[in-house]
Amino acid sequence: MKNVTLVLEDGTEFRGKSFGYEQPVAGEVVFNTAMMGYPESLTDPSYAGQLMTLTYPLVGNYGVPPFTIAPDGIATFMESDKIYASAIIVADYSEEYSHWNAVESLADWLKREHVPGITGIDTRQLTKVLREHGVMMGKILFDDQPDNIPQADYEGVNFVDKVSCKEVIRYNEGAGKKVVLVDCGVKNNIIRCLINRGVEVIRVPWNYDYTGMDFDGLFLGNGPGDPDMCEDAVNIIRKQMSLSRKPICGICMGNQLLAKAGGASIYKLKYGHRSHNQPVMEVGTTRCYITSQNHGYAVDAKTLGSDWKELFVNMNDGSNEGICHKENPWFTSQFHPEACSGPVDTEFMFDRFVEKLK
What we know:
The chain is an alpha/beta fold. The chain has helices spanning 38-42, 106-112, 123-133, 159-163, 188-195, 231-243, 253-261, 348-355, and strands at 3-8, 13-18, 25-32, 50-54, 58-59, 87-89, 92-93, 117-119, 136-142, 169-171, 178-183, 200-205, 217-220, 248-251, 266-282, 288-299, 308-314, 320-325, 330-333.
């Protein structure tokens, strides 16, 4: 294992060892407090451009499942077609793995997909730095490559355009109700949750004008980066809302895009929500759900128009976790009801959406 150094933009350094692909990399350093699910997290396109720190100390002990494709054309155990995180940072990498479904080690997978991995980092201290300062840019540098210093930008980059599909893809054709799914970096399990409810899914690029298509409902998927970079998508959503009252549901980035289309503004959280245990209250009820989340931006609920209201609120910091229109069947969640990995307490969001299709 080669010696590596994680250098944060404020000059803070963490020394460790490489266990993945041996190439310097730069990106936004974020932390995830989930205790499991690294195959799903690494392949979540929402992590594009980020160096993902896992706070759970032991990582790699259950290996990596095979990359197989189900009959519906979706990867069986992964959330996309490849690893999208720029790197993974852990405290203790387990070289030995054991799991009924594992076919390779995390290290072998990272090397095959050209993704760096660091172990031996004090991730508790790193997380404290990020919580106090806020997420920041960082670089993973190899001691034996002193002149190979990467550069990376996160602010002002349209990562959605980088990860979105480039053409229309159909799933479950002829099944019944048709749902247009706007791909901003959508996770496979969102597609799977829709298919399992008997609808045809028409997956379109993030900036595709679907307003003239034949469909029964609109679904806005998750994605990476700053929603303010996706003005084309917002304008198309706004156009759709002016043409029809067809149901609209959004998840994560989809929540932010629908809110922007409704006139609200977005702000960046200090260090984001990336975990499996975010408590969310459904407004107007006493119901609180434990949710899986992965986002660095939030809707400023105070800027919502008079036709809109909050649907969910985060019980830790009071930030917005979903909105709904007061009259039309348009609603969202900032959290991931499809989880994968994580709790599935809120998968009813898909049922609510499908029930409104006419």
